[in-house]
């Protein structure tokens, strides 16, 4: 069980790195708990583009339930959602 937990943590960190890269965030803003929905750095088209890229890369589909998840815009929460779908 410990091996799986460590594997998932490493995978989650890789997802977070991918998300940060594709959100075009400056290092100062690319903190683990950065909320891209609440920030004013991204417009709606940026967010749609990012979500589309994530769905294509990880071969997943976000549902309306995912979007309603508390703190969906938090990079850490989004990484957990992605990890649970792959």
Brief rundown of the structure:
By secondary structure, the chain is an all-alpha fold. The protein has helices at 2-22, 44-58, 64-68, 75-85.
Q: What topology does this entry show?
A:
Layout: H1 2-22, H2 44-58, H3 64-68, H4 75-85
Helix pairs in contact: 1-4
Kindly describe this structure.
The mean pLDDT is 77. Helix content is 60%, strand content 0%. The protein is built from four helices and no strands. The protein has 86 residues and is mainly α. The chain has a domain at 32-86. α1 packs across α4. The chain has helices at residues 2-22, 44-58, 64-68, 75-85. The relative contact order is 0.17. The chain is globular and about 30 Å long.
Question: Which short descriptors sum up this protein?
Answer:
single chain; mainly alpha
* Backbone shape: globular
Low-confidence stretches: none
The proportion of strand residues reads under 5%
Q: What is the structural class?
A: mainly alpha
Helical content (DSSP H or I, runs of 4+): 55-70%
């Amino acid at each position: 069980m410990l091996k799986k937990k460590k594997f998932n943590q490493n995978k989650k960190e890789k997802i977070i790195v991918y998300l940060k890269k594709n959100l075009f965030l400056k290092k100062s803003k690319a903190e683990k708990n950065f909320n891209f929905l609440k920030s004013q750095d991204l417009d709606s088209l940026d967010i749609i583009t990012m979500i589309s890229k994530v769905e294509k890369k990880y071969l997943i589909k976000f549902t309306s339930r995912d979007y309603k998840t508390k703190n969906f815009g938090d990079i850490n929460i989004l990484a957990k959602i992605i990890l649970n779908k792959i």
